[in-house]
Amino acid sequence: MGYSAEQLIDINKELKSKTPVEIAQWAVQNAKNPIVTTNFRPYEAAILFAATQAKSDIPVVWCDTGYNTPNTYRHAEEVIKLLDLKVDLYVPQQTAAHRDVVMGIPQIDDSRHKIFTEQVKLEPFKRAMANHKPDLWFTNLRKGQTAHRDNLDILSLGADGVLKVSPFYYWSDAGLDAYLAENKLPNEHKYFDPTKVLENRECGLHA
């Protein structure tokens, strides 16, 4: 999916007035191998709903760090069943129990934090992308989440050339709350990302 910067600007202007499902439908019609990724954090049901409305059998890549809360795992099971998701699960090559003994969860100023992030998030994600080889990647990035994400848009090109599609890019939490209620979708806020530490810190997948 080769788009120039100028083309992306024009397409983003057109898509801004579309609904999330309409954006997703446009995207899958122009893709050969789309995927959607999820970690089942708050509001993830919205992007999973939009993506599966556009393509019911779209591969859903779940990179599970192994440190999710019980609430997140229960929420994941509920959403998977509700939307009949075709989940492809990726986990770190070392168990959380093993890592807890030899490293634990390093603080952000600990030199081991970069190694920890690579092990629990980046390596499983890279493995998933290498296996699926997508040309289009649905994400739930939103403006206002981090400084880096404020410079993106509904459509953005990753360094690997994969087109990232964020149908809810301009949506607020309040708007998403209404969207979930309208579509009878569940939400869960007891979520823990051991790699971010701060909510407005980039997770490493999109930078």
Automatic annotation (TrEMBL):
It comes from the Bacteria. InterPro entries: PAPS_reduct_dom, Rossmann-like_a/b/a_fold. Residues 38-187 form the Phosphoadenosine phosphosulphate reductase domain. Gene3D superfamilies: HUPs. One of its GO terms (biological process) is sulfate assimilation, phosphoadenylyl sulfate reduction by phosphoadenylyl-sulfate reductase (thioredoxin). One of its GO terms (molecular function) is phosphoadenylyl-sulfate reductase (thioredoxin) activity. Pfam families: PAPS_reduct. Pathway: Sulfur metabolism; hydrogen sulfide biosynthesis; sulfite from sulfate. One of its GO terms (cellular component) is cytoplasm. PANTHER family: PHOSPHOADENOSINE PHOSPHOSULFATE REDUCTASE. Belongs to the PAPS reductase family. CysH subfamily. This is Phosphoadenosine phosphosulfate reductase. It comes from Leeuwenhoekiella polynyae.
